[in-house]
Amino acid sequence: MLGNLKSQPADKILALMTKFKEDPRIQKVDLGVGVYKNAEGVTPVMRAVKAAERRLVEEQTSKSYVGLPGDPAFADAMIDLVLGDSVQRDRIAAIATPGGTGAVRQAFELVKMANPDARVFVSNPTWPNHVSILKFLGIPTIEYRYFDTESRAVDFEGMLEDLADAKAGDVVLLHGCCHNPTGANLNITQWQSVIDLINEKGLIAMVDIAYQGFGNGLDEDAEATRLVASSVKEVLIAASCSKNFGVYRERTGLLMAISDDAELTPIVQQNLNYLNRQNYSFPPDHGARVVTMILTDPELRADWAAELEEIRLGMLELRQQLADELQKLSGSDRFGFIAEHRGMFSQIGTTPDKVEQLRADNGIYMVGDSRMNIAGLNKDTVPLLAKAIVDAGI
Ligand code: PMP
């Protein structure tokens, strides 16, 4: 049986990580994998997370199973963080999941159970896992235009044109903030137009929010998700705590399913619980408990929010420094988009050949689609990257 298996393509980003580690050059810059790093290249455990973990070790009296949806206090705390009071609580069913990936996977499975004919519209480009999970589940997937490779902003006209092909019951997958991989985001007026189209056509909205607090601020980054949640009848939201709490390996996420009518919530909840049961029974608890403790303890929450803000502002500063440096070296404003983009990534919009040239000539590692992780830079490496980009004729 096992001999029938075919080899699977290596994950490109993980392969790049290995290549970086094996590169003997002292001067090299890793802009590949999507993990926040500070100026020293370290992905730190956040202060509030350490404090909450210490408290958990002291106070936790049992590691017995929690319910299938996970700890209800986690769902409440995350719903509050992501949605504020934009939606009536009794319209929301929710399950804890292993990371944002788990939430995305369970959301797609729920779509398939509820409507086997649904197609999912995804941005071109999107986080590659969206596409690969949809393919794995056999869900028809349609790309909509998203990134204008000239301006490196959203191709909004193209996006609306392509979404106009969606039929009632189809799902539109949107990134709540900090689009991965491009860094280009809709403004709130554009969000409203997408919502209008969704409502006119009777579509389902799905929002993946994995970087709340990395763009314009905790509430600001949730604004679009809240607008969708309060204006569309049926909404699925996959939220990840990996980045904004720095708990990547703890696998902490939440799937929310918002029904039009609160009477549907119990049955939606049953189906979400069922999906958890089929896939892994109980979701991971440690990260969820840490997050809950932070969000519900005013002191821990304030410290967490302050550290997250330092991280966000640090990335914005690097963006500005890089845009300024490129402006200086190239004598043109064509790299201004780097300061406009938000989140951890920017797609600089060049060819795989040029990306390879940056790696070979300068030890600069970015993903083949020219996505770079801004957090992989620091004040000293920004000028090196800027020079390499200009020298490569990008
Ligand atoms: N969605 C998007 C768009 C992401 O970029 C990520 C992280 N790479 C995730 C979801 C999920 O991350 P995790 O499973 O680590 O929480």
Automatic annotation (TrEMBL):
Gene3D superfamilies: Aspartate Aminotransferase, domain 1, Type I PLP-dependent aspartate aminotransferase-like (Major domain). It comes from Cognatishimia maritima. InterPro entries: Aminotransferase_I/II_large, Asp_trans, PyrdxlP-dep_Trfase, PyrdxlP-dep_Trfase_major, PyrdxlP-dep_Trfase_small. Homodimer. Keywords: Aminotransferase, Pyridoxal phosphate, Transferase. This is Aromatic amino acid aminotransferase apoenzyme. One of its GO terms (molecular function) is pyridoxal phosphate binding. The keyword Transferase applies. Belongs to the class-I pyridoxal-phosphate-dependent aminotransferase family. Its cofactor is pyridoxal 5'-phosphate. It comes from the Bacteria. GO terms for biological process: L-phenylalanine biosynthetic process from chorismate via phenylpyruvate. Pfam families: Aminotran_1_2 (PF00155). One of its GO terms (cellular component) is cytosol. The keyword Ion transport does not apply. Residues 27-389 form the Aminotransferase class I/classII large domain.
